[in-house]
Design brief:
With 203 residues, the chain is an alpha/beta fold. It has a 5-stranded parallel sheet with strand order 2-1-3-4-5, with helices on both faces. Helix 3 links the parallel strand 3 and strand 4. Helix 6 packs across helix 9.
Length: 203
């Protein structure tokens, strides 16, 4: 399962450095960059990250620790601070948000890898442990047929036309499938699930 990573860093060069090395280090990750508090707010409204790497001193006097206090109360994610601050007082302040690690700038490949690898591996293991067992026994033959078409990226209208049914009927079928598979009916969760399990649907 894909690990969603958010980098909060107001210097694009540093943010891109982290992003590029993450894609070189790991597979099955999605990396997003937020250069300001406004971009963080926008991302958090729509997504749930697994890991956040956050600079402490951002532009416009936005404090990364205060920002993480806001979101740690709402969402569950692992947190690593990346900063040029080395003072004991600053490190002590981060305890309030329970970070997994604290990496001092300037960054290099070895420091970035050492500071993040154990955390990312643990997240990957947790996701694998929590991964639901595929059980299609509760789905009807018609629902599995719809799932196969979804996996092939057919839209609701195209599925309805192919099966000679109404789009409303297909929408209701999609809702039932989501309930049976315990999927959220948003952010293309059903499409993602169908694509990931396409090989098993064809069995």
């Amino acid at each position: 399962m894909e690990i969603k990573i958010l980098i909060i860093e107001d210097e694009m060069i540093i943010a891109r450095f982290i992003e590029q090395h993450f894609y070189a280090f790991y597979q099955n990750i999605e990396v997003n960059i937020a250069l300001s508090c406004e971009e963080v707010d926008k991302y958090m409204q729509q997504h749930k990250p697994d890991l956040v790497l956050c600079d402490i001193q951002l532009q416009d006097d936005c404090d990364g620790i205060d920002l993480m206090l806001k979101y740690k109360a709402e969402k569950q994610f692992s947190l690593i601070f990346i900063t040029s601050y080395e003072s004991k007082q600053c490190i002590d302040r981060t305890i309030a948000v329970n970070p997994e690690n604290y990496i001092i700038k300037p960054l290099n490949e070895s420091r970035l890898y050492a500071g993040t690898h154990i955390v990312i591996q643990r997240i990957a293991q947790d996701k694998e442990t929590l991964k639901p067992t595929l059980n299609l026994s509760e789905l009807t033959a018609a629902e599995i047929q719809v799932l196969k078409l979804i996996a092939n990226r057919y839209t609701t209208k195209h599925i309805a036309d192919k099966l000679c049914l109404s789009p409303h009927t297909i929408k209701n079928t999609r809702h039932r499938i989501c309930r049976k598979l315990s999927l959220e009916e948003e952010n293309n969760a059903l499409l993602t699930w169908a694509i990931e399990h396409q090989h098993m649907l064809e069995c």
